[in-house]
Amino acid sequence: MQLFFHENIQGNSFDLDADESKHLVKVLRKVKGDKVFFTNGKGFLFTCVIIDPNPKKCHLAIQERLFTPEDDFYIHLAICPTKNADRMEWLVEKITEIGVHEITLMQSTNSERGHLKLERLEKKIISACKQSLKTRVPKLNEVRPIRDLLQDKIFDTFERFIAYVDEENDQHLFKKAKPKNSYLVLIGPEGDFSPAELDLAFSNFFLPCSLGKSRLRTETAGLAAVHTLQLVNNE
C-alpha cells in the first residue's frame, strides 16, 4: 500500500492542490477509477477513488474511513539541535518511523545550534509517516530553553528522564521506564548538559538514565531513547 497525506479532508470528497494533483496524475500516472489511500495525520485512513484525474485539481471520493486509536503510551523527546542540520532531519525521520508522539527542540548551555527550519523538519516527518504507513503525525515544537522544560508543570504526570554520560549513571532507560505511561526524555548536545542543568533536573524529579555503555552522538541518543521506550511498551 502507498500512503498519501492531505491535512484537510472533510465530507465525502476532496480536491488536491496543483502540486499534489500533478504528482498523482502525471508522475504516478493514476487514472479515473484508481484506488488510493490517504491520511490526514490525525488517525484516519481514507480509502479513496479518483473521480476526476485533473493534473491541476484532482478530485477524489472517499469510499471508506478507518480510525486508528491513540497509543496507550506517549513518547515526548526533547533534544538539543545538532550543529549539522542534516543530522536532525535524519533523526526526526527515523524516530517518526519507529514511533514518537512529540518532539521538542531544546536550548541548553552547551547547545551547538539555536535554530532550525521547522518547515523542513515537518516535511521529513510527513514523508516518514507515509513511508511507514502511520496515520498520526507527531507534534513538532519550536526551540525551548531547557529551564522552561524542566520546570513546566504540564509534565508532572509524565515519567521524566534525563540521559547523560557518567560512569555512575549506569541504569538503562529500559530498566527504569514503566510500560503504558507518558514519557519525557531529555537529550543534550555533544557537550552534554551542564552541572547546573543536571542539578535543576534532579530538583524537578527528573530521573537520570543511561542509553548504553557507548558514547553516542546526539541524534543517535535520541533514536536510542525512542526505540527503547517502544520496546518497553511492545514486549
Automatic annotation (TrEMBL):
One of its GO terms (molecular function) is rRNA (uridine-N3-)-methyltransferase activity. Keywords: Cytoplasm, Methyltransferase, rRNA processing, S-adenosyl-L-methionine, Transferase. Signal peptide: none annotated. Residues 72-230 form the Ribosomal RNA small subunit methyltransferase E methyltransferase domain. Its EC number is 2.1.1.193. Belongs to the RNA methyltransferase RsmE family. NCBIfam families: PRK11713.6-1, RsmE family RNA methyltransferase. This is Ribosomal RNA small subunit methyltransferase E. It comes from Rhodonellum psychrophilum GCM71 = DSM 17998.
